[in-house]
């Protein structure tokens, strides 16, 4: 077992895949030995987005707070707290913050075994 203090994993940075706006990232599973999955939290600040990018694994975006629009292969859906987008291997995906509050997400996906 590994217990992680989220506060120790907090970084303010532009989001990945396009560096659109700013975000707060918590790379919760970074440094966990032998892990098989990534588990992260990210707050997309006002106007920020994780740009469209291909994924080579299934991926989950679960909304904790705020609102956003997720896109997968050109189809866009609105997300609110309590909603989750399950994204499939091979899709072109991205998500952007909308509204007045930051979009806080839990993001999970498998780690590629080397």
Automatic annotation (TrEMBL):
TM spans (from-to): none
InterPro entries xrefs: Cupin_2, RmlC-like_jellyroll, RmlC_Cupin_sf
Residues of the Cupin type-2 domain: 44-107
One matching Pfam family: Cupin_2
Superkingdom as given in the UniProt entry: Bacteria
Name recorded for this polypeptide: Cupin domain-containing protein
Organism: Sphingomonas plantiphila
Lineage: Bacteria, Pseudomonadati, Pseudomonadota, Alphaproteobacteria, Sphingomonadales
């Amino acid at each position: 077992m590994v217990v992680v203090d989220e506060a120790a994993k907090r970084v303010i940075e532009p989001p990945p895949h396009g560096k659109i706006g700013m975000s707060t990232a918590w790379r919760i599973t970074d440094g966990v030995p032998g892990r098989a999955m990534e588990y992260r939290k990210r707050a997309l600040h006002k106007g920020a987005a994780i740009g469209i990018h291909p994924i080579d694994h299934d991926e989950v975006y679960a909304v904790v707070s705020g609102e956003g629009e997720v896109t997968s292969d050109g189809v866009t859906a609105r997300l609110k707290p309590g909603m989750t987008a399950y994204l499939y291997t091979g899709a072109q995906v991205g998500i952007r913050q909308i509204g007045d509050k930051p979009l806080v997400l839990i993001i999970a996906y498998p780690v590629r075994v080397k």
